[in-house]
Write a structure and sequence with these properties.
414 residues; alpha+beta; phage-related protein like fold; 5-stranded mixed beta sheet; 12 helices
């Protein structure tokens, strides 16, 4: 999507870099103004595409109990205000009020007053989607569940910017020498690039039978939370490690760029340690090499991320020359740490493939942008007596420096 515009931007950035290296600062500044104008054009194109998608997919959810169409864009005449309401002398919690109304809408039992609450809440958020915004408490609960199951996503730095967002990318290290007064300084090798995230659509669907929709609100919300957490979590956990980015020939839908995907690029081969049928000594050596591959700036705050199978089958049985296990169990639920290897925290993350160990400073080395919060639409299937709940959000992510990460690849034959 927008490949021509992105190609134009890449070409302009190369020109900027050439001008700077040749000392033409005025020319570089003028060229960067062109980049900014092109960024505005790209942002406008992204917005127009989203609006077009919203219009093409606009299908109002029908209330099968014959209570009318559930719209979400404006507060109806004679509607309700979510601010300043008092019940029995106690100010009402607008999030709790909306959550109760939303649950009834999702279960198909919303009253006209519930519908008015939903419309008022969504209008206040100026949502640009035909879906109904998931209650804040539920959305927070879903993301909490995701972050517990996928600690790398939890650890990654996050921004919440609508539209395209550009980050600086560290492509090399600067000269660190000291000089006396009589010695001319050498040019440093610091190379700063940029990465622009445009947003990847994440849509997941769950199906609920009409019998289950008859459960109470207090039971329904945890049920939906668990289902959506599992679906959205698997996608987000996959994306930060294995996402393939944008396809050059549209052979797949846009995905975040995963840290493993980035490290497997030929230019980042120095960050990858490959072992075939390794011995315990070779694996211990690989951990040392992985630590050496991380730049010192990123070393503090780095951790090992590994799935459960690899941790317990491949790593836990390994002992050093004195017979002590290299992995020591020391669980910290709050930070998702399950133990330590040579003083580095180990976090169990099912987004990591089997026989892969990622050493990474996620907070400093990976960026996630939440472009659009999670919304939910529903569609009833009369014959099957089920309801499909379709969750939708826009997320994106990418590594900002290969030197913040290292990958140990194990392979076994026979």
């Amino acid at each position: 999507m927008f490949e021509k515009l992105k190609a134009q931007r890449d070409a302009l950035m190369m020109e900027v870099n050439d001008l700077i290296e040749n000392g033409d600062i005025d020319g570089a500044n003028a060229k960067m103004d062109e980049v900014k104008q092109l960024d505005d054009k790209i942002t406008a194109a992204v917005t127009a595409k989203k609006n077009m998608d919203a219009l093409s997919a606009a299908a109002p959810a029908m209330d099968i109990s014959d209570k009318g169409v559930m719209g979400v864009q404006t507060v109806p005449e004679g509607g309700v205000s979510l601010e300043g309401n008092v019940k029995d002398g106690i100010p009402e919690d607008k999030d709790a009020k909306y959550e109760a109304a939303w649950a009834k809408w999702a279960m198909g039992t919303a009253s006209p007053e519930d519908n008015a609450v939903i419309k008022a809440y969504n209008a206040a958020l100026t949502t640009e989607t035909t879906g109904v915004v998931i209650p804040t408490t539920l959305a927070r609960g879903i993301l909490d569940d995701v972050e517990k199951a996928f600690p790398y996503y939890a650890d990654a730095a996050k921004t919440f910017v609508t539209g395209a967002v550009t980050y600086l990318k560290d492509k090399g290290s600067s000269d660190a020498k000291w000089y006396d007064e009589a010695t001319a300084t050498e040019d440093g090798t610091q190379s700063i690039g940029t990465i622009t995230l445009y947003g990847c659509e994440l849509a997941r669907s769950i199906t609920v039978s009409w019998k289950l929709k008859a459960m109470s609100v207090s039971e329904f919300i945890p049920y939906i939370r668990a289902k959506l957490s599992a679906k959205m979590g698997q996608a987000l956990g996959y994306g930060v490690f294995n996402g393939r980015g944008i396809s050059s020939n549209d052979s797949w839908k846009p995905e975040p760029v995963g840290v493993i995907t980035e490290l497997l690029k030929p230019e980042n081969s120095s960050q990858v340690i490959e072992l075939s049928n390794p011995t315990a000594v070779q694996i211990i050596s690989a951990f040392a090499k992985a630590n050496a591959a991380i730049e010192p700036y990123y070393e503090d705050g780095s951790a090992y991320y590994v799935n459960s199978k690899t941790l317990w089958d491949r790593i836990a049985p390994i002992c050093d020359s004195t017979g002590r296990p290299i992995f020591t169990v020391n669980s910290n639920v709050q930070s998702s740490i399950v133990g330590y290897i040579f003083g580095k925290p180990v976090k169990r993350d099912s987004g990591v493939p089997d026989d892969r160990i990622v050493l990474s400073n996620a907070k400093e080395g990976y960026m996630v942008n939440v472009n659009q919060q999670i919304t939910l639409s529903q569609q009833d299937n009369g014959k099957a007596r089920t309801t499909d709940y379709n969750a939708y959000g826009i997320f994106d992510g990418c590594p900002v420096s290969a030197k913040a990460h290292a990958l140990i690849k194990l392979s076994y034959t026979g």
